[in-house]
Design goal:
alpha+beta, Tumour Suppressor Smad4, 2 domains, eleven-stranded antiparallel β-sheet, four-stranded parallel β-sheet, 17 strands, 38% strand
Length: 274
């Protein structure tokens, strides 16, 4: 018997209907289904063999953070607009579940990003796992935020601008892309530092090896905010630092057949033929 957990906003009619439909389908075949997202906002995936994300890319990102620590594979069902990370459309959910139960699937591992905050007094702050990116952004309109970047314990450069993001290869097609950063194959293990609207001469993205450690210090005079995969985590006062490194565990994404990243890129961004 397989236990499938569903992650999605049950207050959305389309999500609730799809979850109920898939639950009936599973139970008719002797399997179990549970809702991972509880009414109090907490998430439980204990004992699950598969986590199904019902929503857009943002929903999948939140599902991955819950599943990665337990090593549970995630199947993304697109109930959004772009759906760059999701694998199947709602009409194909039962077929995807059937393929998973029959073992006719692959699990693609994607590098994650471990993010840890250090308060000005040295106390440890929040820690998060990101699949796409963790960005430091300004809080005062019309003014820049100053961020001191160090790599492997050595000072690199001070950035001034609207912010600075650190992305994975998976996240290179998200916020990093809109900030004019490079597009990387999702199979790569790399960190990408991309300044957002930089007010400085050095305005180029920087691609680093995953073994390199990045520290970003918030400098006077203004505070900033830490945003991880689109969710605000905490305010960063001057003197705070954010530490970045490769995550302890990769995200495990369920796929069916070869994942042609270049074809997906062409389709999602409507790239014209030559």
């Amino acid at each position: 018997m397989t236990l499938v957990a569903f992650y999605g906003r049950s207050d959305r009619d389309e999500v609730a209907g799809l979850e109920a439909r898939a639950t009936r389908w599973l139970e008719e075949r002797g399997h179990r289904a549970i809702a991972a997202l509880r009414p109090d906002g907490s998430v439980s995936v204990d004992g699950a063999d598969l986590l199904v994300s019902l929503g857009g890319d943002g929903t999948l990102l939140r599902a991955v953070e819950s599943a990665s620590t337990a090593g549970i594979p995630v199947l993304g069902v697109n109930i959004g607009r772009l759906g760059f990370l999701t694998q199947v459309e709602p009409a194909g959910l039962e077929a995807a579940l059937e393929g998973f139960l029959a073992g006719k699937h692959q699990v693609e591992e994607r590098m994650t990003l471990h993010v840890a905050v250090e308060h000005p007094d040295g106390r440890a702050g929040p820690e998060r796992t990101a699949l796409n990116e963790a960005s430091i952004e300004k809080t005062v309109p019309g003014h820049t935020v100053r961020i001191g970047a160090s790599i492997d314990g050595r000072p690199f450069v001070t950035y001034a601008g609207d912010g600075l993001l650190v992305a994975t290869a998976t996240g290179s097609t998200a916020y990093n892309l809109s900030a004019r950063g490079p597009i990387l194959s999702p199979q790569l293990r790399a960190l990408v530092l991309t300044p957002v609207s930089p007010h400085m001469l050095f305005d180029r993205p920087l691609v680093l090896d995953p073994t390199e450690r990045v520290r970003l210090d918030i400098l006077e005079p203004r505070s900033a905010v830490l945003v991880v995969d689109g969710a605000t985590v905490t305010t960063l006062e001057p003197g705070s630092a954010v530490h970045y490194r490769e995550g302890d565990r990769p995200a495990r994404m369920v796929t069916f057949g070869p994942n042609n990243f270049h074809a997906i890129l062409r389709a999602k961004f409507h790239l014209a033929d030559r």
